[in-house]
Protein backbone atom coordinates (compact mmCIF):
# COMPACT_ATOMS: atom_id res chain seq x y z
CA UNK A 1 0.00 0.00 0.00
CA UNK A 2 2.83 2.42 0.81
CA UNK A 3 4.24 2.38 -2.69
CA UNK A 4 0.78 2.85 -4.22
CA UNK A 5 0.18 5.95 -2.08
CA UNK A 6 3.61 7.35 -3.00
CA UNK A 7 2.88 6.76 -6.67
CA UNK A 8 -0.50 8.47 -6.35
CA UNK A 9 1.17 11.42 -4.64
CA UNK A 10 3.82 11.64 -7.36
CA UNK A 11 1.14 11.62 -10.05
CA UNK A 12 -0.75 14.40 -8.27
CA UNK A 13 2.32 16.59 -7.71
CA UNK A 14 4.02 15.98 -11.06
CA UNK A 15 1.24 15.51 -13.61
CA UNK A 16 2.55 14.99 -17.08
CA UNK A 17 5.71 13.27 -15.88
CA UNK A 18 6.85 10.63 -18.34
CA UNK A 19 6.65 7.88 -15.71
CA UNK A 20 10.30 8.15 -14.71
CA UNK A 21 9.41 9.60 -11.29
CA UNK A 22 7.14 6.67 -10.56
CA UNK A 23 9.82 4.22 -11.71
CA UNK A 24 12.36 5.92 -9.41
CA UNK A 25 10.01 5.74 -6.42
CA UNK A 26 9.24 2.07 -7.09
CA UNK A 27 12.97 1.38 -7.39
CA UNK A 28 13.67 3.18 -4.09
CA UNK A 29 10.95 1.09 -2.45
CA UNK A 30 11.80 -2.30 -4.00
CA UNK A 31 15.56 -2.05 -4.59
CA UNK A 32 16.88 0.75 -2.37
CA UNK A 33 20.57 -0.03 -2.85
CA UNK A 34 20.20 0.11 -6.63
CA UNK A 35 18.22 3.34 -6.37
CA UNK A 36 20.99 4.95 -4.29
CA UNK A 37 23.60 3.74 -6.75
CA UNK A 38 21.69 5.39 -9.60
CA UNK A 39 20.80 8.56 -7.65
CA UNK A 40 23.81 9.92 -5.75
CA UNK A 41 21.90 13.16 -5.00
CA UNK A 42 19.67 11.18 -2.62
CA UNK A 43 22.61 9.35 -1.09
CA UNK A 44 24.10 12.77 -0.25
CA UNK A 45 21.19 13.19 2.17
CA UNK A 46 23.01 10.78 4.47
CA UNK A 47 20.59 7.89 4.04
CA UNK A 48 21.31 4.27 3.33
CA UNK A 49 19.38 1.44 1.72
CA UNK A 50 17.81 0.48 5.07
CA UNK A 51 16.35 3.93 5.75
CA UNK A 52 12.53 3.69 5.65
CA UNK A 53 12.30 7.31 4.49
CA UNK A 54 14.20 6.58 1.27
CA UNK A 55 11.09 6.35 -0.97
CA UNK A 56 9.82 9.68 0.45
CA UNK A 57 13.22 11.25 -0.25
CA UNK A 58 13.17 9.76 -3.75
CA UNK A 59 9.85 11.56 -4.28
CA UNK A 60 11.32 14.80 -2.94
CA UNK A 61 14.45 14.59 -5.07
CA UNK A 62 12.38 13.68 -8.11
CA UNK A 63 10.17 16.73 -7.59
CA UNK A 64 13.26 18.90 -7.21
CA UNK A 65 14.82 17.73 -10.47
CA UNK A 66 11.51 18.22 -12.29
CA UNK A 67 11.14 21.81 -11.00
CA UNK A 68 7.97 20.97 -9.08
CA UNK A 69 9.64 21.69 -5.72
CA UNK A 70 12.53 23.86 -4.56
CA UNK A 71 14.81 23.21 -1.59
CA UNK A 72 15.76 26.41 0.18
CA UNK A 73 18.10 26.85 3.14
CA UNK A 74 16.44 28.20 6.27
CA UNK A 75 18.73 31.28 6.31
CA UNK A 76 17.95 32.55 2.82
CA UNK A 77 17.02 36.11 1.96
CA UNK A 78 14.05 37.11 -0.17
CA UNK A 79 16.10 37.35 -3.37
CA UNK A 80 17.29 33.76 -2.95
CA UNK A 81 13.80 32.52 -2.09
CA UNK A 82 12.35 34.34 -5.10
CA UNK A 83 15.00 32.97 -7.45
CA UNK A 84 14.41 29.39 -6.25
CA UNK A 85 10.65 29.73 -6.52
CA UNK A 86 10.98 31.28 -9.97
CA UNK A 87 12.54 28.01 -11.15
CA UNK A 88 9.32 26.12 -10.38
CA UNK A 89 6.83 25.32 -13.11
CA UNK A 90 4.06 26.54 -10.78
CA UNK A 91 5.67 29.98 -10.29
CA UNK A 92 3.74 31.24 -13.32
CA UNK A 93 0.51 30.58 -11.41
CA UNK A 94 1.37 33.37 -8.98
CA UNK A 95 -0.20 36.67 -9.99
CA UNK A 96 1.90 39.55 -11.23
CA UNK A 97 1.19 41.34 -7.95
CA UNK A 98 2.53 38.42 -5.92
CA UNK A 99 5.62 38.05 -8.09
CA UNK A 100 6.22 41.83 -7.81
CA UNK A 101 5.91 41.60 -4.03
CA UNK A 102 8.53 38.83 -4.00
CA UNK A 103 10.85 40.85 -6.21
CA UNK A 104 10.64 43.99 -4.06
CA UNK A 105 10.26 42.72 -0.49
CA UNK A 106 13.21 43.14 1.87
CA UNK A 107 13.42 40.27 4.37
CA UNK A 108 15.74 37.69 5.79
CA UNK A 109 14.95 34.16 6.91
CA UNK A 110 13.14 31.65 4.75
CA UNK A 111 10.33 30.87 7.18
CA UNK A 112 9.56 34.57 7.69
CA UNK A 113 9.54 35.14 3.92
CA UNK A 114 7.32 32.14 3.22
CA UNK A 115 4.88 33.18 5.96
CA UNK A 116 4.68 36.66 4.41
CA UNK A 117 4.22 35.14 0.95
CA UNK A 118 1.41 32.79 1.99
CA UNK A 119 -1.40 35.41 2.14
CA UNK A 120 -0.41 36.70 -1.29
CA UNK A 121 -0.48 33.18 -2.72
CA UNK A 122 -3.82 32.54 -1.03
CA UNK A 123 -5.31 35.53 -2.90
CA UNK A 124 -4.09 33.79 -6.07
CA UNK A 125 -5.89 30.59 -5.04
CA UNK A 126 -2.62 28.87 -4.22
CA UNK A 127 -0.96 27.30 -1.20
CA UNK A 128 2.73 27.56 -0.34
CA UNK A 129 3.44 24.12 1.08
CA UNK A 130 6.46 22.41 2.58
CA UNK A 131 7.48 18.76 2.56
CA UNK A 132 9.15 17.65 5.77
CA UNK A 133 12.50 15.96 5.19
CA UNK A 134 13.84 16.35 8.73
CA UNK A 135 16.33 19.01 7.67
CA UNK A 136 17.05 22.68 8.26
CA UNK A 137 16.05 23.41 4.68
CA UNK A 138 12.56 23.85 3.30
CA UNK A 139 11.23 21.81 0.39
CA UNK A 140 8.67 24.20 -1.10
CA UNK A 141 5.80 23.56 -3.48
CA UNK A 142 3.24 25.98 -4.87
CA UNK A 143 -0.04 24.09 -5.21
CA UNK A 144 -3.65 24.75 -5.99
CA UNK A 145 -5.85 24.42 -2.92
CA UNK A 146 -7.53 21.18 -4.14
CA UNK A 147 -4.15 19.60 -4.98
CA UNK A 148 -2.79 20.68 -1.60
CA UNK A 149 -5.73 19.14 0.25
CA UNK A 150 -5.40 15.84 -1.60
CA UNK A 151 -1.61 15.80 -1.24
CA UNK A 152 -1.75 16.34 2.53
CA UNK A 153 -4.12 13.39 2.90
CA UNK A 154 -1.82 11.14 0.88
CA UNK A 155 1.28 12.28 2.79
CA UNK A 156 -0.50 11.67 6.11
CA UNK A 157 -1.30 8.10 5.03
CA UNK A 158 2.42 7.62 4.65
CA UNK A 159 3.21 9.18 8.02
CA UNK A 160 4.84 12.22 6.43
CA UNK A 161 4.05 15.90 6.59
CA UNK A 162 3.11 18.13 3.72
CA UNK A 163 1.72 21.32 5.17
CA UNK A 164 1.06 24.93 4.34
CA UNK A 165 3.52 27.38 5.76
**Strand percentage:** 5-15%
Portion in helices: 55-70%
**Looking at the structure, what is the overall shape?**
globular
Secondary-structure class? alpha+beta
* Major sheet details: 4 strands, antiparallel
Which blocks of ≥5 consecutive residues have pLDDT under 50? Answer: none
Number of strands: 4
Arithmetic mean pLDDT: 95
Structural domain tally? 2
Rg (CA only)? 16 Å
What order do the helices and strands follow?
HHHHHEHHHEEHE
How far do the termini sit from each other? 28 Å
Adjacency order of strands in the biggest sheet: 1-3-2-4
Query: Helix tally?
Result: 9
Briefly summarize what is shown.
This protein is α+β, with helices and mostly antiparallel strands and 165 residues long. It is built from 9 helices and 4 strands; from the N terminus they run αααααβαααββαβ.
Overview of the molecule:
It contains nine helices and four strands; from the N terminus they run αααααβαααββαβ. 56% of the residues lie in helices and 13% in strands. The chain folds into two domains: 2-66, no CATH class; 72-128, no CATH class. The mean pLDDT is 95. Strands 1-3-2-4 form a four-stranded antiparallel sheet, sandwiched between helices. The protein has 165 residues and is α+β, with helices and mostly antiparallel strands. The chain has helices at residues 2-13, 20-30, 32-38, 40-43, 54-65, 78-86, 96-104, 110-123, 145-158; strands at 70-73, 126-131, 137-144, 162-164. α1 runs parallel beside α5 (54-65) and α1 runs antiparallel to α9 (145-158).
